[in-house]
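Hypothesis: this fold can be encoded by more than one sequence.
Test: take the structure tokens below, design a sequence, compare later.
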């Protein structure tokens, strides 16, 4: 693929990045208005380097080079956090460049580019969804001549792998298609989705991205920590696919047996449980039946800055808790129900006896008070009583300690059948 620099073993240099972008983006005609879809601060990536090189290469030959932060439903970034995120203040950026947040919750910021009919949705999802889905996207895309997707690819609980078309849906999408795609991921389950390339959600978001009435170039890259290990530039399906293959090699750790307990310490880039729950998603496939994931994050004091009120009302539950009580939760957005069941994990629910049986336990050791943890149906440990170095010495007890959890996926071979 033109503009590709795969490198599983070593870190890409700035020269590698520049060469890949020069080759991969040369097809964008001069004088055009270009909009780049970038991640927020919840994704590991050397964004200052990537932002600077993009500006140096594209801004001088473009009428505009603007950037939209593909938030999905994440909280908006402030001017100050944006400056830190891209490594450049507004006054230092090119004169023809601005950065703005996606506003998923404001109808005036959206436009309906198409509606996917029910028959198409049913075919793409293998019959899991049956209704038509409106494809509402940030209306700003219609003000540009060319779109560039610019983000990392890693194992993901909803889409299988992040990146590619996911920067369009949910990245710059409206609430209905965000909820539908997340609920679809929940119906399949995180355990059977994360780290898998061909998923129902990926097929749906790729088909929705095909409807965008602008040419799209994808810059998909793979990161270990903040180290770039591969970059692929081109068609959004092809570039993403190659990056997902490399991510699968670098970011999935296979272990022979499930662990009894996991101390999962999310990266400090996650500021609420909504994003820090990746510490659960990325370790659940390596936890034996009856085991426990402890999310140890003393800095976390909020469940979700966007959806916290609804989560407090609904709580965290296994999938069958929602599917067997559909009418009761019909008014709860699918994105909230999906987050709930992803965090709680696999399990069953006996509707006649109102008995919920999760496969594993999920416990928070955070600044979120014990009363709130219990109310939302999660366990609680006082983070002051946890000493990670003591957990490190318990390997013989089938205990795993994960630092900077949320990027690397752990999968036990005895749980994959």
């Amino acid at each position: 693929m033109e503009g590709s620099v795969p490198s599983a073993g070593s870190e890409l240099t700035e020269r590698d990045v520049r060469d890949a972008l020069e080759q991969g983006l040369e097809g964008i005609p001069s004088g055009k208005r270009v909009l780049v879809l970038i991640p927020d601060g919840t994704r590991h990536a050397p964004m200052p380097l990537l932002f600077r090189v993009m500006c140096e290469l594209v801004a001088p030959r473009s009428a505009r080079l603007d950037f939209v932060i593909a938030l999905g439903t994440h909280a908006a970034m402030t001017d100050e956090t944006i400056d830190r995120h891209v490594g450049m203040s507004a006054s230092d950026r090119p004169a023809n460049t601005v950065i703005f947040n996606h506003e998923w919750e404001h109808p005036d910021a959206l436009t309906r580019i198409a509606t996917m009919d029910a028959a198409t949705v049913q075919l793409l999802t293998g019959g899991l969804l049956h209704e038509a889905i409106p494809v509402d996207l940030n209306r700003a895309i219609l003000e540009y001549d060319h779109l560039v997707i610019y983000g990392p690819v890693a194992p993901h609980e909803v889409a299988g792998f992040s990146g590619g078309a996911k920067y369009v849906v949910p990245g710059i999408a409206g609430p209905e298609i965000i909820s539908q795609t997340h609920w679809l991921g929940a119906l399949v389950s995180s355990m059977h989705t994360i780290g898998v390339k061909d998923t129902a959600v990926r097929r749906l978001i790729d088909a929705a991205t095909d409807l965008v009435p602008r040419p799209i170039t994808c810059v998909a890259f793979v990161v270990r920590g903040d180290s770039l290990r591969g970059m692929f530039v081109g068609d959004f399906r092809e570039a993403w696919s190659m990056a997902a293959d490399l991510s699968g090699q670098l970011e999935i750790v296979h272990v022979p047996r499930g662990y009894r307990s996991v101390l999962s310490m999310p990266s400090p880039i996650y500021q609420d449980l909504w994003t820090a729950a990746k510490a659960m998603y990325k370790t659940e496939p390596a936890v034996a039946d009856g085991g426990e994931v402890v999310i140890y994050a003393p800095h976390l004091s909020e469940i979700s800055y966007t959806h916290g009120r609804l989560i407090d009302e609904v709580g965290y539950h296994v999938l069958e808790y929602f599917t067997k009580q559909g009418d009761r939760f019909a008014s709860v957005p699918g994105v909230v129900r999906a987050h709930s069941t992803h965090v709680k994990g696999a399990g069953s629910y006996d509707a006649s006896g109102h008995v919920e049986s999760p496969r594993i336990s999920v416990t928070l050791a955070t600044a979120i008070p014990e009363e709130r943890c219990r109310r939302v149906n999660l366990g609680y440990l006082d983070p002051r009583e946890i000493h990670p170095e003591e957990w490190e010495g318990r390997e013989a007890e089938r205990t795993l300690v994960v630092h900077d959890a949320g990027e690397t996926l752990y999968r036990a071979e005895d749980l994959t059948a």
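The radius of gyration is 21 Å. The longest helix spans residues 236-250.
Hypothesis status: open.
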